[in-house]
Amino acid sequence: MLESRSAAETSQIAKEFAKTLKPGDIVALSGDLGAGKTAFTKGVAEFFGIPADEVGSPTFTMVNQYDGDLTIYHFDAYRLENVGADSCDWMDDYFFGDGICLIEWAQNIKDVLPKGYIEVKLDKAPEKGDDYRAITIIN
């Protein structure tokens, strides 16, 4: 488990994590609203040469594409519930492409994620401060 006390630290942790990523990797991000999922995504994007200010949560578009040293597909599955393989088959083009997929609210589509994804949990701990996050990476 890693600890962050600010969005900047969360982004820095993500940059270090990004060094381990390769084309075809799927990163499933989970955490409450405001836990830092987008801040984490910004850090990964920055590692691949994509300015952080170009990265925003794709809540209404479902997926944003960022082109840098490597293409990043940034999903937001917040509005998806009880999905099955048939309703998410459009995601396969991204999952099995040459980029990296980062999926916020991945727990909502866990049943359709391909095997071998990397899970990143961002947890708040208000007793340690409003900006504190425990970040757990499970391969």
CATH fold label: Rossmann fold
Read across the widest sheet, the strand sequence of neighbours is 1-7-6-2-5-4-3
Question: CATH homologous superfamily name?
Answer: P-loop containing nucleotide triphosphate hydrolases
SS content category: alpha/beta
The CATH first-level class comes to Alpha Beta
What portion of residues is helical? Answer: 10-25%
Strands, count: 7
Overall spatial form: globular
User: How much of the residues is beta strand, in percent?
Assistant: 25-35%
Gyration radius, rounded: 14 Å
Largest sheet: 7 strands, mixed
Instruction: Give the overall average pLDDT.
Output: 88
Instruction: Give the helices and strands as they follow along the chain.
Output: EHEHEEHEEE
Architecture, according to CATH?
Answer: 3-Layer(aba) Sandwich
Distance between the termini: 13 Å
Q: Please indicate the count of domains.
A: 1
How many individual helices? 3
Uncertain stretches? none
Explain what this protein looks like in three dimensions:
- The protein has three helices and seven strands.
- It is globular.
- The protein has helices spanning 7-18, 37-47, 92-95; strands at 2-4, 26-30, 63-67, 71-76, 100-104, 118-124, 133-138.
- The protein has a seven-stranded mixed β-sheet with strand order 1-7-6-2-5-4-3, with helices on one face.
- It has one domain: 3-Layer(aba) Sandwich (Rossmann fold), CATH 3.40.50.
- The longest helix has 12 residues, at 7-18.
- β3 and β4 form a beta hairpin.
- It is α/β, with parallel strands linked by helices and 139 residues long.
